[in-house]
Amino acid sequence: MEQLKTIGRELAMGSQGGFGQSKEFLDLVKSIGESRSKAEEDRIVLSEIDILKRKLLEPDIPKRKMKEYIIRLVYIEMLGHDASFGYIHAVKMTHHDTLLLKRTGYLAVTLFLDEDHDLIILIVNTIQKDLRSDNYLVVCAALNAVCRLINEETIPAVLPQVVDLLNHQKEAVRKKAIMALHRFHRKSPSSVSHLVSNFRRKLCDNDPGVMGATLCPLFDLISEDVDSYKDLVSSFVSILKQVTERRLPKSYDYHQMPAPFIQIKLLKIMALLSGGDKSASEMMYMFQLPSPQLLEAAADAISKFLKSDSHNLKYMGIDGLGRLIKISSDIAEQHQLAVIDCLEDPDDTLKRKTFELLYKMTKSSNVEVIVDRMIDYMISINDNHYKTEIASRCVELAEQFAPSNQWFIQIMNKVFEHAGDLVNIKVAHNLMRLIAEGFGEDDDDADNKLRLSAVESYLQIISEPKLPSLFLQVISWVLGEYGTADGKYSASYISGKLCDVADAYSSDETVKGYAVSALMKIYAFEIACGRKVDVLPECQSLIEELLASHSTDLQQRAYELQALLALDARAVESILPLDASCEDIEVDKDLSFLNGYIQQAIESGAQPYISERERSGMFETTDYHSQDHHEVTSHALRFEAYELPKPSVPSQASTELVPVPEPSYYSEPHQPVSTSSSVSERESSEIKLRLDGVKQKWGRPSYQSSTSASSSTPPRAANGTSTHADGGVASSSSSKPRSSYESKKPEIDPEKQRLAASLFGGSSLSRSDRKSSSGGHKPAKGTANKPPKENPIPVQPPPDLLDFGEPTATSVTATDPFKELEGLMDSSSQDGGSTDVMGLYSDAAPVTTTTSVDSLLSELSGSSKGNPGTYQSQTSKGPNSKEALEKDALVRQMGVNPTSQNPTLFKDLLG
Amino acid sequence: MGIRFILMVNKQGQTRLAQYYEWLTLEERRALEGEIVRKCLARNDQQQCSFVEHRNYKIVYRRYASLFFMVGVDDDENELAILEFIHLLVETMDKHFGNVCELDIMFHLEKAHFMLEEMVMNGCIVETSKANILSPIQLMDKAH
Predict the structure, then answer these.
(1) Is A484:A494 a contact under the CB 8 Å cutoff?
(2) Sequence ranges of the domains in chain B
(3) Which CATH number is B3-143 given?
(4) Do A32 and B144 lie within an 8 Å CB cutoff?
(5) CA–CA gap between residue A891 and residue A889 (Å, rounded)
(6) Residues 193..222 of A with a Cβ closer than 8 Å to B: which?
(7) Looking at this predicted complex, what is its ipTM?
(8) Which of A94-108, A601-615, B68-82 has the lowest mean pLDDT?
(9) Which among A8, A460, A682, A781 could disulfide-bond with A587, CB atoms 3.0 to 4.6 Å apart, if both were Cys?
(10) Is A470 helix (H, G, I), strand (E, B) or coil?
(11) Between residues 636 and 655 of chain A, which touch chain B (CB distance below 8 Å)?
């Protein structure tokens, strides 16, 4: 067989003249293709740079040659080297009259230049001219360039022409003109605000390509402002209907499916439009939302996905589970084993997705298992980006659900130890605050135990090498405040440790500062108690060293410490009182004690002070900005991606049972501001350290919220309305699913069963748990519809956190289940056609041997191409085999052949 | 914004085509490509899914013979749709070149780019009809 093929090649060799490309270019491609290492490739490219630099200086380069040079420049940049010496030639080529050269020029320019590059100005003129061309392909090339190169400033230069082209007779031009307008809208919405109606109009273009493209800008517009586009719902419905009825040209079919890519886009838009709008969603889906049928269908799809062998489908299953779990918590329990399998899968992507799911279903009953797993995983990975993410999730879950303070501190220690450089400083402040304030209940005993356990754990950890800076700051602070408080450790022991820290991390000024301040506190407490202070020699030398420090901050701390050592007990006590880090210090922000002085000055003729914002007349705006700023700082740890995709409606949830939100979007952002605007300077810096408010904003209501959602079904309702009395019932019901499952599958690994039980088993228990405790603490909540306003009392640390998590939980009841379904709809939309999606994807796993794809394609080519190829039995593909042979032969002529260094270059991608 | 970049990289990690829909400097591109290629090429096990998270991208990739097609997308993009988009791209190239292979893309880099220009604009999939994608390219071929 191989022989036959070779003979064919030899036969075809004779007459051909090449691809119209020069030997030089073919040689370059050949050598790049055959290079074995990056270093070899770099050598080739570097010598190519030298050659091109020379060649481009030659006069009168023929245009064909020039095009080749430009593509060689593209190669240079693509392979990671700078080709800026040739940019100007690419720019010049856009002026060329020949379409191919012009388009190549535009292509190169879009690859080389960013929209703010100086050379762009030379192209704008050409673009303007080309937009007026009679040749529609030239217009298209120019529009492509417009979409890449026009920035905010140059929009006006081409805008009128682009608008004219919206009505061009060629559909390809209309399509690209719409996308150019889309680009302008992204770059500068105000520049095209008067033209937005064009997007609506082009939706009804009689060319499906233009209609399909218009969906892109419409998606953007609708996600910015849903309400203004509700009237389009019926249009989208009828378009989708036409698509599924196969009224689009056959060429939009993809594997016998009618225009799947357009369908997906339509469904995404409809999900946006139906969000929170009953009538719109009824019009689209003829379902009352939340529709049990729809949920069931989604759950079915998910379980099919999860049971599939394809990792891609499993991934989608986990993804769908994560979206659905907010609406229907029961669904996860059915799939507990599948979830655990995915969690232990060697595939990192799947594992991460599963952690995301676990994060969404965390509650007080399983938080320990989940966070432990997350931390183990966090320690095992090197990817800082994801490490940061997972660390902040651990912190968030720990803050929200921690069963005990000891556990919380342990978790924080682990997070700091392994990802200390990656977590937000706010986390450290929260931890210090928690240790300082304890439970906030008046249980000093428990607080002291907590502090002691913190101090003990830190004394153990402190001698480990290379701790992250942030962690050391926490350790130093806690040791300073509480190191000697219990009397278990002596002042000299603690101060010795602190000196060691300052010594070991001498390059870290912040840590040193914390250590010195901690020393100061230790000595202050000693002095205040009337004990004699022996300053350790190493401490003395540290102070002396810092007195001469280049850092003024350290210097000042050292001087303060020195001064403090010389003071008597009473003075010291009032400077640094014991355990007073949480006391509020009243600061007279208005400096009212100066009023008399000012009055005097004004009376004697001085100008009264006019504040800066009054002077600039920007009162409102600056005020707004400062609020903004506050929000930013208080949100510092928040990772938007985990939020629901639309603004939650925190308070107005009409009743718990109706999860359709009312669109009152902007109520949430105002909450933190109201607490912070009135407090004094000192306090406002304190606010960063506070846990209150934090939880409300971070509160991941996800899983719990489903209580109320699912309480619409009878058994849950019984649970939900009950209080403590129901505990027994609930726990018995919790054991049920487990036992039934055990009887079904006795061969399951007990390890996994245990994990499943700890992850899923306790769910119904915890649900009733949560209900009952919330009933106890906040009886008003369930009965009244009044907005659960921000609690003015500082929110207590765990486990009481649970109760205060409730307000946010209500907000999630109000999220639109349809929204959550979006992803599912998308993926399942692909099986909207006749073919079975499982069949299509099951062999879509990464293809190492391309057999699966081959079978797909052969199906396709079988129907569409009709293969007459009797020449070769082994390639069963299309009528191109002869061409391919010729191509092969040609390349051999150039000296590239399958037996040379890189035979894979010849492998058919689809074969 | 949907698609952030499209890469074609062979199994030796050599870039065969790169198209970005947001501006990255040469250094940023080189670093990003290096990281992604290392990540994806290490995952050639058939029992793994075709998606990788990297920085704030989600990368959907698929291997055809010696060539990896990698598409970086935003978090809210549907992975399976992108996977099929890759296949559509390969089918389109196959239709044009006939039994497309890595070398075709290397010799006709600009054409591969032209096809992408027709299919994706502003990071959005705008055209999925092979006839529409290929017609301007065929017209240009005829003119020469």
Answers:
(1) yes
(2) 3-143
(3) 3.30.450.60
(4) no
(5) 5
(6) 209, 212-213, 216
(7) 0.97
(8) A601-615
(9) A682
(10) helix
(11) 641, 645
